C-alpha cells in the first residue's frame, strides 16, 4: 500500500536536492577538531564544479531501487517502510519528524545506500493514519519504534543505528532503552544519531527552567548529536549533551554553521542549507564509523529515577484559547545590559517606570521576522503612554543584523547578545521569545512564537499594565 511514500531520487531534479560545495562549514566541538577554514574565490569555484560532478556520479552509481516493505507490529498494524538496500554491514533506521517524511530525504537515503549503508525510512504517520503536526507523535508508544528496530536487525542481520530528529528523538531513545530492557543482542545496535533533538518535556513559555524528559538522563548508548547553529537549541546543546552523559552515554556534538533545524527536509531552504544537504550522506557515514568504534554498546539499560510521562512531550497549553499567557514563574527579573547596533549601551533599569516589551530574536528565524512590523506598530500606538519595545538579536554579527534591517526601519533600539548570555539568563528557549514587563519591571507575560503585537488581545493586556501605577 502506498500512502505518502518517498519518491526515488530520479523523480526530483538533482539541482533541487544537491548543490555546489565549497569549504566544509561543519564545526565539531570535540577538542582539537575545528574543520572550518578559509578558501579563495577561485578555490570555491573549482570545488563547486567538482562537487557537482561528484554528486552526479554518486547518484548515477548503480544501486538497488528503493522498495516498499511492511513490518507487522504487535498492535496489528503494518508499519510502512521504504527500504534502500546496501551491501554493507550497517543499517540506519531513520524515523521521521513530527511533520512526516519529506521528499528530500529519499535522495539522502539513496546516497547512503550507495556508500554501503542500508537505510530504512518508516512512515509513522501513514502507519497510524496520523495528521502531521507539532504534536502528532506525542501519544505514539515507543514500543512500536523498538519493534521496527528489532525487525531491521532480524531481517538484515546488520548492525542497527537509530536516527531521529526533533521531538522524535525522545521516542527513539525510549525505544532503545526498551530494547535493552527486553534483551538486546551483542553487536545488534551501534548507536543513535540525533538531529537537533528536542528532549524537553515542553518548551518553556519564557523565564521558566526547562525540564528534560527522564530518558535523556537514562541513555547509555553512543550518541552522535548534530545541531544546526541557526537554532535556539544550539545555545542549549551543551546542556543537552551533559544531560545525555549523565546516563553514561558517550556523546559527540557536531555543530553545523549557517543552517537551521530540519534544513535537509524543509521545502523552503537556503543555498547554504541545500549545500549542507548534499554533504549529509558523507557526514552520516563518518558518524556511523565513529559510533562503531567508540565503545561496546551496553546490553542493559541505564537506571531511570522516575517513570516517563506516557506523552513524551507535553502540549504546553496548546489547547488554551488565550495566546498571551500570564507569566507563571516567581523569579526576579534578570538584569539586562547590552550594546545596541548604534554602539550605545542599553540598561533595562534606565526604563524604570515604563512598560517594556522585550523581544529575543534572530534574522534567520521566519516567525521573528514576521512579527517585526507589528512590534513597530505597537510601539507607535502606545509609546506616548509609556511603552517601550527593546529588541535583542541573539548570536549574530552586527553587520549582518544592520544589513537585514535596512529595509525594515524600526523606531525601537536593537541590542546585540552575541554569546546568548542574556538569552540564557532570561531562561528563553525558543525564537522568538518575548517578555512584557510592567512599570516596576516585574515579568507579567512571557511567550514564545510570533504574535500580532497590535492585536486587540495584546493591546488590552498592555493597556491594563499602562493603567497601573508603581505600588499597585
Question: How would you describe the overall organization of this protein?
Answer:
The structure is a single chain. This protein is α/β, with parallel strands linked by helices. The protein has two domains: 284 residues, 3-Layer(aba) Sandwich (Rossmann fold); 131 residues, Glutaredoxin (3-Layer(aba) Sandwich). It is built from twelve helices and 16 strands. The strands form two sheets. A nine-stranded mixed sheet has the order 1-9-8-7-6-4-5-3-2, with helices on both faces. A seven-stranded mixed sheet has the order 11-10-14-13-12-15-16. The longest helix is centred in the middle third of the chain and has 22 residues.
What would you say about this model in short?
The protein is α/β, with parallel strands linked by helices and 472 residues long. Helices cover 30% and strands 21% of the residues. The chain has two domains: 9-292, Rossmann fold (3-Layer(aba) Sandwich), CATH 3.40.50.1820; 337-467, Glutaredoxin, CATH 3.40.30.10.
- What do the pLDDT scores average to? 86
Shape: elongated
The number of domains is 2
CATH architecture of the largest domain: 3-Layer(aba) Sandwich
Q: Using only CA atoms, what is the Rg?
A: 24 Å
Number of H/I helices = 12
Determine the N-to-C terminus distance.
65 Å
Please name the fourth-level CATH homologous superfamily of the largest domain: Alpha/Beta hydrolase fold, catalytic domain
DSSP helix fraction: 25-40%
What profile does the largest beta sheet have? 9 strands, mixed
Low-confidence stretches: 1-62, 316-321
CATH class value of the largest domain: Alpha Beta
Bin the strand percentage.
15-25%
N to C succession of SSEs: HEHEEEHEHHEHEEHEHEEEHEHEHEEH
Amino acid at each position: 500500500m502506498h500512502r505518502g511514500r518517498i519518491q526515488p531520487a530520479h523523480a526530483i531534479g538533482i539541482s533541487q536536492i544537491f548543490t555546489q560545495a565549497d569549504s566544509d562549514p561543519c564545526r565539531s566541538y570535540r577538542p582539537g577538531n575545528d574543520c572550518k577554514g578559509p578558501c579563495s574565490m577561485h578555490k570555491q569555484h573549482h570545488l563547486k564544479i567538482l562537487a557537482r560532478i561528484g554528486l552526479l556520479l554518486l547518484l548515477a552509481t548503480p544501486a538497488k531501487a528503493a522498495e516498499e516493505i511492511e513490518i507487522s507490529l504487535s498492535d496489528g498494524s503494518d508499519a510502512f517502510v521504504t527500504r534502500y538496500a546496501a551491501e554493507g554491514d550497517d543499517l540506519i533506521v531513520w524515523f521521521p519528524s513530527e511533520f512526516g517524511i519529506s521528499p528530500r530525504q529519499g535522495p539522502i537515503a539513496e546516497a547512503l545506500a550507495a556508500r554501503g549503508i542500508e537505510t530504512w525510512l518508516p512512515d509513522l504517520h501513514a502507519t497510524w493514519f496520523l495528521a502531521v503536526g507539532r504534536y502528532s507523535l506525542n501519544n505514539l508508544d515507543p514500543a512500536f519504534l523498538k519493534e521496527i528496530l528489532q525487525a531491521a536487525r532480524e531481517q538484515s542481520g546488520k548492525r542497527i543505528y537509530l536516527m531521529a530528529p526533533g521531538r522524535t528523538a525522545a521516542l527513539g531513545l525510549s525505544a532503545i532503552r526498551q530494547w535493552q530492557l527486553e534483551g538486546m543482542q551483542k553487536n545488534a545496535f551501534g548507536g543513535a544519531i540525533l538531529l537537533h533533538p528536542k528532549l524537553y518535556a515542553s518548551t518553556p513559555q519564557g523565564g521558566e527552567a526547562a525540564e528534560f524528559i527522564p530518558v535523556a538522563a537514562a541513555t547509555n548508548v553512543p550518541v552522535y548529536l548534530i545541531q544546526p547553529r541557526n537554532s535556539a537549541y544550539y545555545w542549549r546543546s551543551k546542556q543537552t549533551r551533559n544531560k545525555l552523559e549523565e546516563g553514561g552515554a558517550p556523546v559527540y556534538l557536531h555543530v553545523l554553521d549557517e543552517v537551521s533545524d530540519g534544513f535537509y527536509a524543509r521545502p523552503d531552504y537556503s543555498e547554504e542549507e541545500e549545500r549542507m544537504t548534499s554533504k549529509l550522506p558523507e557526514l552520516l557515514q563518518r558518524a556511523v564509523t565513529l559510533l562503531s568504534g567508540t565503545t561496546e554498546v551496553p546490553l542493559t539499560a541505564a537506571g531511570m529515577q522516575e517513570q516517563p510521562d506516557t506523552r513524551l512531550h507535553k502540549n504546553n497549553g496548546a489547547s488554551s484559547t488565550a495566546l498571551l499567557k500570564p507569566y507563571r514563574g516567581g523569579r526576579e527579573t534578570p538584569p539586562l545590559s547590552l550594546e545596541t547596533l548604534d554602539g550605545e549601551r542599553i540598561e533595562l533599569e534606565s526604563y524604570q517606570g515604563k512598560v517594556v516589551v522585550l523581544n529575543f530574536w534572530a534574522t534567520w528565524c521566519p516567525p521573528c521576522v514576521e512579527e517585526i512590523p507589528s512590534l513597530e506598530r505597537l510601539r507607535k500606538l502606545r509609546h506616548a503612554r509609556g511603552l517601550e519595545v527593546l529588541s535583542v538579536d541573539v548570536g549574530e554579527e552586527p553587520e549582518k543584523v544592520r544589513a537585514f534591517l535596512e529595509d525594515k526601519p524600526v523606531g525601537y533600539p536593537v541590542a546585540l547578545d552575541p554569546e546568548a548570555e542574556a538569552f540564557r539568563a532570561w531562561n528563553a528557549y525558543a525564537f522568538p521569545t518575548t517578555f512584557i514587563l510592567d512599570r516596576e519591571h516585574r515579568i507579567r507575560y512571557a511567550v514564545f512564537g510570533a504574535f500580532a503585537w497590535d492585536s486587540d488581545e495584546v493591546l488590552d493586556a498592555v493597556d491594563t499594565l499602562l493603567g497601573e501605577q508603581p505600588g499597585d
